[in-house]
Design goal:
This protein has 7 helices and 7 strands, in the order ααββαβαβαβαββα. It has helices at about 1-10, 20-40, 65-75, 90-95, 110-120, 145-155, 200-225; strands at about 40-45, 55-60, 80-85, 100-105, 125-130, 155-165, 180-185. The chain has a 7-stranded mixed β-sheet, with helices on both faces. α4 (about 90-95) links the parallel β3 and β4. The radius of gyration is 16 Å and the shape is globular.
Length: about 240
């Protein structure tokens, strides 16, 4: 989400028609069936996701299947921000069909932000990986895109721990072994405390750090509770996905 953070620092994103909700609903139903067939999946805390209104699912990112897995485990149809180049691969048509949103992190992608805002303003759900790419998943660093979208759309932010999609010692491109345990743990919504009446950039910075710290704590707690450690050894830094 580094591209979203850069765009968010400037003017508001231009209005864009967001992807249809039925696409995300279809993807969630089909994906859920496949994940239950291929893996030992668990979803915890789904009741923490508000049943109505705009919601941002902010998750840690360690493995290639994180987006598809969380999209399938979400209790509501979700539209995830996915790197634009992924839409040029063999899974591109599937991403389009299921209503995912392409984003170019190399620039401030106003089109992607516009689509995300439209989804949120109609009361939908957007999924984001604040770390910007696959890595250790401990949220030691994060972009400001989640906070910008939340403040713009007055959306709830739900921290999500994604666990098991990459084992310790495996490369960031590795897929989890079949029938291995995958866990999605949805935390309580974050109530942003950045006060009004301060400069916009300062308010964005405060909200961003609150989200990063809360998500980091939730991921650490969930990893300990479920007994699934994070893959902390990333030899070449973050890997985009």
């Amino acid at each position: 989400m580094s591209g979203a953070a850069r765009a968010g620092a400037g003017a508001a994103a231009a209005p864009e028609s967001g992807p249809a909700t039925w696409r995300a609903r279809l993807g969630g139903a089909v994906g859920g069936s496949l994940f239950h067939l291929l893996y030992a999946v668990e979803a915890h805390g789904r009741a923490n996701v508000p049943t109505r209104g705009p919601v941002i699912l902010a998750a840690n990112h360690t493995g290639y299947l994180d987006g598809a897995f969380l999209h399938s485990m979400s209790p509501r149809p979700a539209h995830f921000l996915v790197l634009a180049q992924t839409f040029d691969t063999v899974v591109g048509p599937l991403l389009h069909l299921t209503g995912q949103i392409p984003i170019d992190q190399k620039v401030g992608d106003r089109r992607a932000l516009g689509q995300a805002i439209e989804v949120l303003r109609r009361g939908g759900v957007v999924g984001i990986f604040p770390e910007g790419g696959r890595g250790p998943g401990d949220l030691s660093q994060a972009g400001r895109g989640v906070a910008w979208l939340a403040l713009q759309a007055k959306a709830h932010v739900v921290p999500v721990a994604c666990l098991g999609t990459r084992a310790a010692g495996e490369h960031a491109d590795a897929w989890p072994r079949l029938r291995s345990r995958l866990v999605a743990d949805f935390g309580e919504p974050i109530h942003l405390t950045a006060p009004d009446g301060i400069p916009g950039r300062q308010r964005l910075a405060l909200a961003s750090e609150q989200i990063r710290a809360t998500l980091a704590a939730h991921v650490a707690d969930a990893a300990a509770r479920h007994g699934i450690p994070l893959p902390m050894d990333v030899p070449e830094g973050l890997v985009n996905t």
